[in-house]
């Protein structure tokens, strides 16, 4: 046994390491799985936290992924124990997978802390599974490594590439504008999703995979290797080997998830043209590990960074091409070579710094990972907006927006909620023109509830028919990372919480000024206060919020600027072994 091993007292020995009634009970029941005595003698027990589910199609290949992680763990002298947690899949779960992100994180946290494990491998993929598992694991702080399931192969339609999600929004607008038939629209389904894996655009799943890698919580290349590429399984195997070493090195998650790591991730998000959802998820993860992060950090660190990765929805290519072009290590190298990687010495899970990992990473395709002098967008990042319409902030993704609309003054067309929007948007008599600002209320964390991805409201068909492709849209909702448009999201406080959004009226003038980081409702302060008082007097509790998980959620969810975590879940509660169960 090496010196390092002698110094580490395994947490799992608190279950399996005693010759008494308790040790008997913990070992005996495990032995019903055919585990011989020697497996309990001083080997690190590695949890494999699996979000496999056939209802989360993006993670449906995870049992095979887990098998490869297990091989690595066994090879390195650990013992793997796979366990399921709540799998919040983006495509099926209603009303939105965001509603249950925090629920999943609680499941993860309690599963890790309450069980005999010395470290954990997080198997993540679909959008919310990545933040949920990192949030839960951060609140425990064992050695932790992320293994992502990988993106789907390129979608194909009529011989051309199509991107997950982005193609749906585009095809749907083409149907509404009468450019394609409903038959063609439905026929595109199978080619859209033709292999295992997550959305192949730079949507939220790919963004969060890149965030996990830039935070240092995964091995290099974890973000982009396609789900069905054999090298994905090699990475899983190597991650299994590495997590055993991390136990002996006592390399806990808090040593990786530092303020410096988050700054690297924010810069990376700008370089990849990442999803606005990352703003919420990184804040929530940082909150669990005790790292302060503010909305303005996205302006300070992210703005001005060129978007180098030419992927849909902002650009042209897909994750498959991104991997072949050099993947995230190529992007990190390009940032670092140009003085744009804020913290080259940030530690990663393989025990090396992020710069040691990527300083010589090759780039094979300069169309996909652009040169710094030929970026996709010169000034990428997330635009943080404030003003009397969003006192606690709102965000817009410039790389998905129309530049001419990023300074805009227009009259509000107001939808009280998503149902009101759906009921009226098709109406040919809707009073709206291309200069109008579409405003939707009550789609925030408490209002929807769960802050659904409905912020990229489809345009009125009569304007689509005129060839209008984009308009300013404002809401307290989120937007899918695969979506695009001049869309102001995450308005905080949300309408349901009494934010000024609640009292916007039809015909009000609204000013959007991205250069000035400003979102302004053009009414006097006195008028705003009077409207808010009138609004507050009319509020009634919603019976649907009075019981069940929804009650817990609505009572405790924080606003978007605070990451939509539950107030009582913030912070790290550590990995102290709970008292015996018998
Ligand atoms: Fe799962 Fe997009 S729906 S990754
Ligand atoms: Mg998504």
TrEMBL record:
UniProtKB keywords: Iron, Iron-sulfur, Lyase, Metal-binding
Domain called Dihydroxy-acid/6-phosphogluconate dehydratase C-terminal: residue spans: 367-564
One Gene Ontology MF term: metal ion binding
Taxonomy, superkingdom: Bacteria
Listed PROSITE patterns: ILVD_EDD_1
Record's protein name: Dihydroxy-acid dehydratase
EC number(s) stated in the UniProt entry for this protein: 4.2.1.9
Coiled coil: none
Residue ranges constituting the Dihydroxy-acid/6-phosphogluconate dehydratase N-terminal domain according to the UniProt record: 43-356
Keyword Acetylation (UniProt): no
Family membership noted in the UniProt record: Belongs to the IlvD/Edd family.
InterPro entries: Dihydro-acid_dehy_C (IPR042096), DiOHA_6PGluconate_deHydtase_CS (IPR020558), ILV_EDD_C (IPR056740), ILV_EDD_N (IPR000581), IlvD/EDD_N (IPR037237), Sugar_Degrad_Dehydratases (IPR052352)
A Pfam cross-reference name: ILV_EDD_C
Keyword Iron-sulfur: yes
